[in-house]
Fold:
Amino acid sequence: MSGRNKVKNPKSPDLREGLSNYTGVAWRGHPSSGRVVFARVTLWILGFCTCIFLYGSGCSSSRVHVSRLEGTDNPRVVPSDSQPPNAALTIVFTGEETGYLEPCGCSEDQLGGIPRRHTFLRVESQESGVRSEPPLYPPPSQEGEKGGWDSRLQTPDSRLIPVSLGDLTNGFGRQSEIKMEIAVQALETMGYFAHNLGEKDIALGPEMFDYISTTSRLKFLSSNVKFTNHSSNRIHPFLIKHVRAGLARPCKIGFLGILSSSAAATMPSYGFKITEPASSLRPLIGVLRDRVDVLVLLSHAEMDESIRLAKMFPELDLIISGHGIDDPAASEPVYVQTRTERSERDTVVVSAGSKGKYAGICRYSPYEKKGRVEIVPLSSNYADSPEMRELMKRYLQMVRDENLLAYEPKMPVPSGSAFVGSKTCGICHKDVYKHWETTTHASAYETLVKSEHDYDPDCVPCHVTGFQYTSGFESVEKTPALKGVGCEDCHGPASAHINAPREEYGKTTTNTCATCHIPDHSPKFEFTSYWKKITHPKEHISGLGG
Amino acid sequence: MQTKLLPIFLVVIILSLTTHERRATSNEQPALSGPDIFFETNRFNFGKIVEREMAEHQFKYENRGNDTLIIQQVKTTCGCTAANTDLTEIEPGESGEIRVTYTASNKTGKFEKAVIVISNDPDKPHYVLKIYGEVVSEVVADPKYIDFGLIPLGKSSSKSIKLSKGYDSHSPRVEKGWVTGIESDTPLVTASYKENGNDEYIIEATLKSGAQANKIQGNILVLTKGLKQSRIELPFYGEVCGDVTIFPPVLHYGQMLQGKEAARIVHVALRNKNVTIEKIEVCSDFLSAELLPKSTPEKPYREIQIKLKENAPVGKMEGLVKVHTNSEIQPVTEIPVTWEVEKREREK
Structure:
């Protein structure tokens, strides 16, 4: 066993260079290398001899062959005469949305969203589908073969098997319950085969699962999560997908799913029992390995843990990993060398990132025993699907009907001061107020109304004044003076300052901007240029100095 | 046979070597054309960054080609990283900078992020820069969140959490007077702190007894003298459990077509075995509700079917279904119902 479980992940400045190094195409290396000359001569001779041998032996170029499952006499996938040479299974994987059902609309450059994903799936499922967006991975220069996985494999196919990795919502609370209901409905409509459980999913509680698993056809998967109080079969320890895929006999894909113990420890899991992933997987893999053609693990875990599992279980062909991996470009697919006499290829560990910004595709040809992995950004090049757009509208309506904004937690201002509203500031600071009225901070609430997120607790805090405090914004009806990003959002609540004006009041730092201008919502934010947009004129107020 | 093949082999070998030599010469003196982006290094280690802190690094690059290098885009692929370039057009021999900012989240642990520089370099149109490091905490909370667990309706619960010195020997001491204040964002939860010596503070949170049967979630804000973490948010979770739990707590039909009846199911979990459903009351002319017979004994809930009648008028409306039980602590549980009926034209 030792020495065969090596992790290969090129760390080269240029991805293409990294691949060349990895694939070991050494004979294309430095021209002055003597080994190169030797290799070239040897290849010529071998090639020549091979041609003569093949000609003499009358070898045909037939692709039809039968391979057998390790340890059994059952033939694996056998191509029929009518099978196209490019027949393949296409597993589409997404996960860790953590409540990001769609981009909030603050910026034009945001990626992701269920409505775009639906369009993406439709494009991918059409044989003549033209993709709107080039993949993030692999870049065009990195096409090639790795560990038995061929990134050049072109297998347009209509047999998509979309799977979900876990953490559809941010866990706990009524808004997450509504999101879960909507997200599960969306996955069902988009034809998802299974959803693996993440820690934020189970934080919603067993009642939620009892409900959605009886009202939805979506299958819930986890090999190491069970209900504590009742023996419901709503959570499947494994699933087998039969795919005919133009083959003489169906190809079987086995799906397993785990939730990392360390991830599970970050949220409450009332009503569920979580066991250690490896000990849960061992017996299941033992049962499945001779019953399926391809074995896939949906691993709701960090990349390191998924790689460890790949080393422990070489029977796994593909591991889709995700927990806290928000950057699939940094976490390129990792090929864990698990090839032995029993296994024909390495195990590839991939992630589609978080917040639903990307979709991963694994095309696998059981006939050619080759696969291709791609990560595709879901940009605005994919139009919103009308069905999912309707569903998102329904979500916003539910949030509005339940008035969830009113139940958001609030605390008193630690200093004891209270919010008064920008108009009150303007009584003394006339020029500053006049300037503020011209900024986008002043109209921040209106942009929210325009995007119909004005009742969404995910969005409102950054478009109003002092939302998280008891004296801050409650609703546009109750606290109209506090709509928009007002003076006090940067300078702090002003009631104490009004009672006793002092120059010490109002000092602020760049950290204040960073509470809302985070790259997810404000990807173009850059302090110097943005500061120029809001910096107000200096003024002198008689009797106050300054 | 061997003597016949030998000349062929020799020709092949000579041809191969000649071709190789010709390529070698051309590679040694490449005829450079176009821009050539060059970075001294493509990786930067930020080391340890405290939670919520922002860190910045400039990757310096040079145009080593013989044509203008145009930086078309600098892409980041995660929400926590921002990147931009000081120049977009770089003449041969000139240098530029890619400024990368990483904002640490409140999640500790190692990180690795990518920045993709897209340019008109014909060989390296997508150049990947990587930043990595570890997010650490100035102060460690143990456990990481306050877990009130499942609390019987009408009872209170107190839990504590320990704050102690953070990631390494350079972390500030959690000494006397280090915590300056504490607040809870939920009136039902109160919080206090006490110094424990040994660079430790004990934060105690209490869930009052007046909470309704529902999930409890919020944050306790600890104000400190810490330079980098002057505010520490400690999340708390819990669930106040009565005898009856209904899911979904609010039933939404969404948009319905005029003249169509629609049925939905709600689950009623009876946590106390002695509690039974006595009556279901409907407070709307357009709704009906019925307790369905228990189909399988292992089901841990009962089902109520709520129907929106076909005579519901066009418009947005709401109603109420009340579930009466023999529970002393939860005799009535309400299910608000919302719907919007649209005119039939929509169907066409």
Remarks:
- Chain B has a mean pLDDT of 85.
